């Protein structure tokens, strides 16, 4: 797959892309010109800004998530004199119909201070669905330690599994097959990646994982050892399900 970048000034970038940029947790601040494109004309941001008396959220656990991709929906609305939202509808989003319906309903159930306002909007984000790793080929499952890595003992310091962060946020699992040597004092080195899926980043992370481990000291050390590192999402690896972003729209 080949990506070709398209360079545009912020003043010409699609509004949906600008919104998506603000919702990604690892992006930097949006330039003011970008906020000017995102924000709607109206009185919603006039001082004093309306504050939520009740911020209703969808039941995210009941919304089907897209495997490996985070969905979002921006809902625009007005409010009446009593702070009740009116005319709520989705203006931009990733097209998750269930999320859009739940987001519009959540805005309708919310209440705000500030009296009648126009041009309000609020984004809702949905955590990605789990995308399991591709099946490991039989040749990789059958790959054994080399002849100079006989009777390999167990780890004295077990490997510490840490997910590649960009894939953890998108709930993408993976695996890698790594070959390495072991020094006589038990340190692992001379690492190389035999294979990795679904991307080479899992191979790079697998080498980091193996460097965190150690084996017992031996007289001569070991050469050509092979291990398989599987990146499987556990409860502690799950990204947070946060539908309430910090930026004010």
Question: How would you describe this protein?
Answer:
With 249 residues, this protein is α+β, with helices and mostly antiparallel strands. Helix content is 20%, strand content 25%. It is built from six helices and eight strands. Strands 3-2-5 form a three-stranded antiparallel sheet. The longest helix has 13 residues. The two termini are 35 Å apart. The mean pLDDT is 92.
List the main descriptive attributes of the protein structure presented here:
6 helices; alpha+beta; 3-stranded antiparallel beta sheet; single chain
**In DSSP terms, counting alpha (H) and pi (I) runs of 4 or more, how many helices?**
6
> How much beta, percentage-wise?
15-25%
- Taken in chain order, the helices and strands follow as HHEEEHEEHHEEHE
**What spatial form do the alpha-carbon principal axes imply?**
elongated
Structural class: alpha+beta
Mean pLDDT, nearest integer? 92
Uncertain regions: pLDDT < 50 for 5+ in a row? none
Residue share in helix:
10-25%
Distance between the termini: 35 Å
Enumerate the strands of the largest sheet in spatial order, edge to edge or round the barrel: 3-2-5
Largest sheet: 3 strands, antiparallel
Radius of gyration: 25 Å
Number of strands: 8
């Amino acid at each position: 797959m080949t990506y070709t970048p398209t360079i545009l000034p912020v003043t010409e970038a699609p509004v949906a892309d600008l919104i998506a940029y603000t919702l990604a947790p690892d992006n930097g601040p949006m330039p003011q010109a970008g906020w000017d494109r995102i924000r709607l004309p109206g009185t919603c941001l006039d001082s004093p800004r309306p504050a939520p008396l009740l911020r209703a959220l969808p039941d995210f656990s009941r919304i089907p998530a897209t495997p490996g991709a985070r969905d979002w929906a921006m809902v625009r609305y007005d409010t009446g004199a009593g702070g009740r939202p009116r005319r709520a509808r989705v203006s931009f989003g990733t097209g998750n119909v269930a999320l859009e319906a739940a987001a519009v309903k959540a805005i309708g159930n919310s209440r705000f201070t500030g009296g009648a306002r126009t041009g309000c909007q609020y984004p809702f984000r949905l955590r990605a669905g789990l995308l399991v790793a591709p099946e490991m080929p039989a040749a990789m499952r059958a790959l054994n330690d080399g002849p100079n890595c006989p009777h390999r003992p167990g780890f004295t310091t077990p490997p510490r599994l840490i997910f590649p962060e960009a894939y953890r946020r998108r709930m993408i699992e993976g695996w890698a097959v790594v070959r390495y040597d072991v020094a006589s004092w038990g340190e692992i080195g001379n690492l190389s990646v035999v294979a990795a899926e679904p991307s080479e980043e899992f191979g790079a992370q697998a080498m980091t994982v193996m460097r965190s481990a150690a084996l017992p000291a031996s007289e001569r050390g070991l050469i050509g050892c092979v291990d398989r590192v599987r990146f499987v999402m556990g409860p502690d690896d799950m990204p947070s399900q946060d539908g309430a972003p910090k930026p004010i729209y």
